[in-house]
Amino acid sequence: MISMKGSPEERARARTLRILLLTALMLAAFVLGCCLGPYAISFPDVMRTLFGQGTARTNLVIFDFRLPRVCLAVLVGFGMGAAGVIMQNLLHNDLASPGTLGVADGSSLFVTLYVALIAKNIDQPVLLPVLALVGGLISAFIIYLLGTKRRKPISSTKLIMTGVAMGACYAAIGTFAMYVLDESQLEFIQRWQAGELWGTEWNYITILAAWIAVFGFVALREARKLNAINLGYDIATGLGVNMKREFLLLSFLAVGMSSAAVAFGGNFFFLGLIGPHIARRIVGTDARYLLPAAGVVSAVIIVVADILVQNVSIFINIPTGMFVSILSVPYFLYLLIKQR
Q1: How many Cβ atoms sit within 10 Å of the Cβ of residue 146?
Q2: Are 229 and 243 in contact (CB under 8 A)?
Q3: Label partner for 21 (CA 20 to 30 A): which of 31, 134, 222, 237?
Q4: Which of 64-68, 126-130, 243-247 has the lowest average pLDDT?
Q5: Would you say 45 and 236 are in contact if contact means Cβ atoms under 8 Å apart?
């Protein structure tokens, strides 16, 4: 955890420096992801190619294959990491995330139904984040409706338990819908649900980048209010925060970012859980610094995991999201034990 000693200005500089160091680490992983693969490219050649001085072969390998995948991994990491911060602070629970609350399951279900019942191929990529957002919002509304009572304080534990139950229901419906898929659709859905970074075309990446940028910018503007809410609902109300408005807005932002990440990256639910926790130990709890730090940490985790599944023989063909989930389970169990 970041030291809380010193003046506010010194603490702010320390947090900013740590975010810059995390960003440098992310850029290093980004470049490494461009270097490594079946056709290895040296660091100088990668840099020359990125600045427009590459050969025809390096241009093909980097701009058509590696760079889109690494960019997608970074954007998915930012979306899931920031969404996890918002949900954990909003519900005052270390176990809250798009995955544990069942919101991401609702997003997954709508995309699955779209592929199963409507789309024979993904020819309108802008629909995917929209459908995922609609599914996530409907899921969040149902969970909120079932997990809260009028005139009683919000129970994060009850919301999480309701989310787990609804997630199981969504998974059952999604499995049933998969029976109407043809072979190519079934393969796509299976790998997507396992966390395959499939949306590696530049039109997908452009849509996701714009989506994450807009939602992330609004989330940063609400960071001070999120800090107040993290102190307690009554305290936030006493400080002048409109709790009903902010709860709905921040929930919408979290669902929006996680839904877009789910649409193009599949199952990276655990990332919204562990990314914020690691970032919190590095920069502290101030959401103004925690939101970008959690995004960068989550991006580093995805990029490194993707490098491993692309280059280590025993991990080849394992979807990146599944690999991240396997690595995250011990940390998730640690959090469960800590909550007792």
Answers
A1: 15
A2: yes
A3: 222
A4: 126-130
A5: no
